[in-house]
Amino acid sequence: MKLKEYIHTTFPGLVLKPSLYSQWDKGIHFELAKGLYQLKENTDELNPDYFNTVYDQAITLFNNLFSDDDQIFLVTNVYRYREYNTRSRRKLKVYLHYIKSKDVRVRLTQETLPYMFDDEEEVEVKCTSQFSLQCHKQDIRYTTLIKAICNQDFPSAKPRIHNPYNLYEPDVFFINATRNVLFYIYDDRGCEVIASDLETIRPIYEKYTDWIDEYCREEIDQRFK
């Protein structure tokens, strides 16, 4: 099953873009590294305790949501001006760096979609290049990829996802097509998990309840009652 067909069938009406939680009524919004700050106190130096906590929590959630046998769509939205041609896709390097095997990477597909943020200026000259790869957990260098996603707002932090287009940073979505769960880390501050069936994600709601974004807690608690 192709990505578009899968989303249409399993998550009808959903658009793969930031704020999945607000689009779907079966989900959780987590805040990463609660109570810690990105910089050391009174300095411009990055706080390693903060980033290590962010990494550990994001990777823990991933490992709870994805098993070795699950079918995965690894999807990346790249926001660019239409004038860039498709040859520029190699510069992104998400799949070159974070997919282990060339034999898996050859299954990569790409589709040009409308720009996801239609409330901005110059929408007509922008677009979204959406890359999709069907794979398994063991095909992905997911630990390094998750760290790179979390580091995107901090140029000195490594690893990082290269962004050659000077628009928004790329968005990376992990989709478990076996369990029908979407996992999206928007940056170091937090992540979203949605599912076709709320019971699928009840275990992480109960196990990691302290990580839930306090602004959404009342709504999330109500969902799981």
Describe the structure.
By secondary structure, the chain is of the alpha+beta class. It contains eight helices and seven strands. It has helices at 3-10, 20-23, 48-65, 94-98, 102-105, 142-150, 198-207, 217-224; strands at residues 27-31, 72-81, 109-114, 126-135, 171-176, 181-187, 190-195. The chain has a seven-stranded antiparallel β-sheet with strand order 1-7-6-5-2-4-3. Helix 3 crosses helix 6. The longest helix has 18 residues, at 48-65. The model has no long low-confidence stretch (mean pLDDT 93).
Overview in brief:
The chain has 225 residues and is of the alpha+beta class. It is 29% helix and 22% strand. Helix 3 (48-65) packs across helix 6 (142-150).
Distinctive features:
225 residues; alpha+beta; 7-stranded antiparallel β-sheet; 7 strands
Q: Low-confidence segments, ≥5 residues, pLDDT <50?
A: none
Radius of gyration: 17 Å
Distance between the termini: 33 Å
Structural class of the secondary structure composition?
alpha+beta
- Average pLDDT value? 93
Q: How large is the share of residues in beta strands?
A: 15-25%
Overall morphology: globular
